[in-house]
Write the structure tokens for this entry.
Amino acid sequence: MKSQPVEFLEWVEHDLNHAMAFYESWLTDGGERFFRRFRETVFSIEENPELFPKKHRFFRRALIPRTYFGVYFAIEPDVTTVVAVLHLRQDPRVIRSLIKLRMQPH
């Protein structure tokens, strides 16, 4: 698949703030390190979104290296949409429910 732009649902900003605060609370420059790894992961998604495995229906997940977080996204015809950046050490049913909720029209 060709590369395509990545867009973010508005929820993702909250997810990123939570993740950065999590790492900042116990690691010097942890938030900055996390964000750098997140940006690298998004670049990989942008370059080849199909490289990452499907985790729930058509949603895919990219692991953020050396963190407990993953990026959940959907490949659409002209754009890849990031729907969530979530801590992966939680019940998978909670993750699936959250992703489905975020994709519903409001």
User: Anything to note?
Assistant: The domain at 6-103 is CATH 3.30.2310.20 (YaeB-like fold).
